Amino acid sequence: MIWLTIILMAIIVFASRHALLEPRVPIRLSQKTLTFLSYSAPAVLTAIFAPIVFAPNNQLDLSLSNPYLICALVATLLAWFTKNTLLTIVISMGLFFML
User: Fold this and answer.
1) 66/97 Cα distance (integer angstroms)
2) Does the residue 34 lie in any domain?
3) Which of 26, 29, 70, 78 has its CA 20 to 30 A from that of 55?
4) Do the domain assignments include residue 43?
5) How many whole angstroms separate alpha carbon 75 and alpha carbon 69?
6) 45 lies in the same domain as 93
7) What is the pLDDT of residues 53-72, one digit of tens each?
8) Does residue 54 sit in the same domain as residue 93?
9) pLDDT of res. 79
10) At what angle do helices 40-54 and 67-82 cross, to 10 degrees?
11) How far apart are CA 78 and CA 91, in angstroms?
12) Whose CA is closest to 75, among 61, 59, 63, 89?
């Protein structure tokens, strides 16, 4: 049953990606739809990282003793000012491991 679910989900994901990314498929999205879909990546990323950063122990923690929050702030500032992804990852991960 698990294998069937995995295979069916793989087929669904492949079909949806193929329909939108294959240039020969005659499906074209409007500009409003493309603009709407451009917000999906930041929304998903926020849904993934917000509980980890702001509630690491299933309780809201906005103190400076929260290493997730400190490193998220450092990573945000580094990404904003340097525009260098590798530098941002290395420094913020190094800081997290030090904390």
Assistant:
1) 13
2) no
3) 78
4) yes
5) 10
6) yes
7) 999 888 998 988 899 999 99
8) yes
9) 94
10) 140
11) 9
12) 89
HEC readout, 16-54: HHHHHHCCCCCCCCCHHHHHHHCCHHHHHHHHHHHHHHH
The answer to whether the beta carbons of residues 2 and 10 sit under 8 Å apart is no
Residue with tokens 């400190």: 70
Q: Is residue 92 classed exposed, middle or buried when 0-12, 13-18 and 19+ CB atoms within 10 A define those classes? A: buried
Residue 23 pLDDT greater than 90, yes or no: no
CA distance 9 to 15: 10
Tell me how many domains the chain contains. 2
Other C-beta atoms closer than 10 Å to the C-beta of 59 total 7
- Model pLDDT for residues 32-55, shown as the tens digit of each residue: 988 988 898 889 999 999 999 999
